[in-house]
Write the structure tokens for this entry.
Amino acid sequence: MDIPKNILNQSNKWIQEPFDAETQNLVKELITSSPKELEDAFYKNLEFGTGGMRGIMGVGTNRINKYTLGKNTQGLSQYLKQSFPNEQIKVAIAYDCRHNSKTLAKVVADVFSSNGIKVYLFEDLRPTPELSFAVRYLNCHSGIVLTASHNPPEYNGYKVYWQDGGQLVPPQDKEIIQVIDRLDYSDILFESNPDLIEYIGAEIDEAFAKSAIENAVFQLPENARKNLKIVYTSLHGTSIKAVPNVLEKAGYTDVHIVKEQAEPNGDFPTVKSPNPEEPEALKMAIDLANELNADIVIGTDPDSDRLGVAVRDNEGKMILLNGNQAMVVMTAFLLEQWKREGKLQGKKHFIGSTIVSTPMILALAEAYEVDCKVGLTGFKWIAKFIKDFPEQKFIGGGEESFGYMVGDAVRDKDAVASTLLICEIAAIAKASGSSVYKELQNLYVDFGYYKEHLISLTKKGKDGAEEIANMMTEFRNNPLKEIAGERVVFIEDYQSSLATNLFSNETEPLYLPKSNVLIYYLEDGSKICARPSGTEPKIKFYFSSNTPIESVEEIKDADDYLTDKIQRIINDMNLN
């Protein structure tokens, strides 16, 4: 195929200085033998999404490499110096188990130090939530973690945190991008200043573990923790550095680690995907749980910010909770514990969620008379709520994609404290003759049965990105008026910041930041959300529907009814 002129112009810049000989040779090889791959590597610059910047490792402007990360770090260095004049700027850097993470973390540290910035660099891989914690613990101005979360092995990424411990949010992300875009690769200062790089580890580990216990441990019956049998897998990731230690310190002694998955490994050799959202990822752990008759299974993703939880149902079968179910159980438990301890003060406290997560969280907030703040997808928005509303105390919050945050010591989803919290719930339930599953069922009786479903359509490369854009344009410009026999009542368009009532044609403003998200609300209370992923080549469709029930015995029929309803919506939207 012929190489487009703009792609050739971009790639030709990479076969000369300031790029090193290895990079130049790799680009030359792509030009001569892989024009399609060359186009994908150079057709755009990697951008910040909901979870930072993620991409395939390799040469090119659309790839993760020392130059794209170096340029970002150079721009961030200049922005930090503009934002904090006359201060000794400090940053913390962590990295996960992925290929090249350690090397790239050192590149990032070198660039910061070359710009006169003090760097605290973790001596070895650490969980992402520990980096968020370290930013505040060390009074840093910013933080970086090198990770691609649960993406395939060929990916890596670069998450940027601000001094509050939360990820970048507007307008800072856009302002930093503007600084980066003004730079040339020749502007990157790669030469390290070793005097400004300090390696950190044990002290932060201890403080992080202590914080998790303070936030997620409650008054339990005697021996409740010792009597809970836990199977845990790190899925070859970083949580092995933190979770066993935290469980032991909290008093959990019957913990069984899936040994085949305990060694950090960027190839993730025992799973198709190191994503606890996928049932297959927890198969080895569930098999071990069945062998040992364990009460609960917990698996965390490579950078330890998401967790998957499996518990036994009423027939003793191990089942995987979805992210919405885990979030509801953990939030309800926190609210009840805070209430029992006399700490709840109405609207002075709040819980957090996202626009694509279960509306059941709103029902919980109403019942406990606390505020519920709902933001865009991504925990950076929950962290922003904590920063923007200092007069309110954050209790906990989550999202459908298996992330949860307990308290405000960490300002990102945190599988370490969340693992401890779900074990507390399981331990107290078992001690009282109940179970996590039964507690979830009781919540459905109290608040209604909620059913959620997610469809992710993968569209890779430049063509895939265009296809996703076209799908969103079609849904936006030619909105559906009726879906599966139910009229569409409201459409929320977060790109135009308008909510439209299709019955009256009246509009009202949406006050969340602009985002490429559309939400349809149907007459029967069902909800459909469409959004391109900010970190993967996917477009995602989220479905939610609910129905009241009066007893646990009605759950099976309610589930069948809502499953059929959601399937009819999917069929009508041609998303099979």
Notes: The mean pLDDT is 95. Residues 66-83 form the longest helix (18 residues). The longest strand covers residues 449-458.
